[in-house]
Amino acid sequence: MANGVLLHRMDSAYDDLPSSHYHFPKMYLSRVERLVGEWIVYYVPVKDTGTSKDRRGGYKAIAQIDRIESDDSKPGHYYARMVTGSYVTFPNFVPIRHANGFFEKGLGNSDGRVNSGYAVAAVRVISPQEFNSIVHLGFAETATELPRYEPEPLPEMDEPQSEFIYDFDRQVVTSIQNRATRDASFRRVVVSAYDKTCAITGLRLINGGGRAEVEAAHIKPVEHGGPDDVRNGIALSGTVHWMFDRGLIGLTDAGDILISRKVNDVSQVASLIKADRKASLPARPEQRPHPAFLHWHRDYHGLGL
Prior knowledge:
- Strands 1, 2, 3, 4, 5, 6 and 9 form a seven-stranded mixed sheet that branches. Strands 7-8 form a two-stranded antiparallel sheet.
- It is built from seven helices and 15 strands.
- The protein has helices spanning 29-35, 116-119, 128-138, 179-193, 238-245, 266-270, 291-301, and strands at 3-7, 21-25, 39-44, 58-70, 77-82, 88-95, 97-98, 101-102, 123-126, 166-167, 172-173, 215-218, 233-236, 249-251, 257-259.
- The model is unreliable at 48-55 and 143-176 (pLDDT under 50).
- The termini are far apart.
- The protein is globular.
């Protein structure tokens, strides 16, 4: 049994959408074949993580590889397709080092520096022990982005799900986490990315307990195959969240706010959104809504441009 690390760059020339598929050349085929059916973590290099002290390169998300398909349009290239719904952005970005060294043993040289030859490999096979250590920190609980209340689940969304269990005796992940845990992780990631600010109203409201009033909305809903990816999320206040889910408002790829032709009282809706009709999006490009999800939302709800 093995797990893996997939390198993802924002400026990659490959056709990657990490929550759905990973594009790679033939040189990595044998490694990816070992990982079919297994869980992987996505690694991002230093230049794609910003400049804050905890953004020196590291691990950002988890997914499970379902299968490999050849790229018919580009000979010698392949797609690793992810299991639908398996992708989750870590609530906590995990740096490459911990107190006692590197999470991946191969990343470190004997002098404690990064093994640059190993680090540039786009696909790396790691042990379950290394994988579990990364995932454990990625999902570690904090109280910084808890919801202001615990809503009752909707009956149609109250589906039985298996629990995410870390078996440290055998060092394997035995199943995926339940929906409530995934929702909590998703909220933490999205609310943090948007700095607790509603993208549509521009309001940053903090209640008496220090909790953000915004909610984390999926752009493409989970029931339609939308992943728990920060790029499939947007921070919204309660009323505009309801409107967004029903397609009364939406976004262009550039972040312009759209009002549906189905709205009867446009002036009322316009009074709720930012005056410049520009959404407040994360400063970091890798956290902004992905065009594929925005396109799905506009298409599904008939929000023409």
